[in-house]
Amino acid sequence: MDAELHESVEEAASDIASMEIRGAATIADAAAEALAAQAEDSTADDPAAFRAEMRAAARRLRETRPTAVSLPNALRYVLRGMDGETVPDLRESVVESAREFRRELDQAQENLGRIGANRLRDGDTVMTHCHSTDALSCVEAALDQGKEIEAIVKETRPRKQGHITAKQLREWDVPVTLVVDNAARRYLDETDHVLVGADSIAADGSVINKIGTSGLAVNARERGVPIMVAAQTLKLHPDTMTGHTVEIEMRDEREVLTEDEELEIDGETDGESFAIENPAFDVTPPRYVDAIVTERGQFPPESIVTLMRELFGDQQGGEPWEE
Questions:
Q1: What is the dotted CATH code of the domain comprising 7-111?
Q2: Is position 138 annotated as part of the catalytic site?
Q3: How many C-beta neighbours within 10 Å does residue 236 have?
């Protein structure tokens, strides 16, 4: 019989899948909180049933977003902290593991922001893509240091996450210029740094981020504008050697079309058929990235594999949510 999942798990899974909860760190935090809620309210009457219930909750959360590695990394952290011979002991260990993970998550972004801010100079203009709390933490820390920063923000279609970035920056009194995605190359001549986040980083230093990042990086390199990727170590993908082996999430085609457009969603217009694809992410090869900034320091992409070995070692065995 399937384990009964707590409403917090179902709500978190639904919100993550629909992007009501977005951003790798926010997703990870929500997943850890949902696992803690599952543990606290579990009615399991023996340790085996409790463990099965927690694995089922983790599987439900894991299936929502296949590309963002922060989600499985959060689940691994919490479930690998599950320990004890009785249900109360197991419950306490999961809740404490989730609490510890969330504490570290908060501190990691603060440390990352401080390190990333050191790469930004007073008077710099940054160009952003999508919405990344890690990238924004670098700008916020630079502002706290008394630096004046301006921003050119790409809209980032089809969901226009750049609008969220622009709103946050304006709340910090940062002068913002919002541009459509296709205008990025034009404004690179006015840009000192391209600053983006990441959803996953492969061992070779490839960066998997919102679709459009790779094209921006290629253009920036051609224009001589340095590309800084802000990503907590939570984004490191220890099971993937190259970015091209990471599963890229394909989102609903309805995100591409608006209700007032003439195109029919079934692919039929004037008797001609067409396909709609909506990949959420792309892969930026390491040669286009100048630095990956984490809470443990800044690294050239080719050094990421060394950092992964220090953090994760040689991982053995299956995933903690597997039967």
A1: 1.20.120.420
A2: no
A3: 24
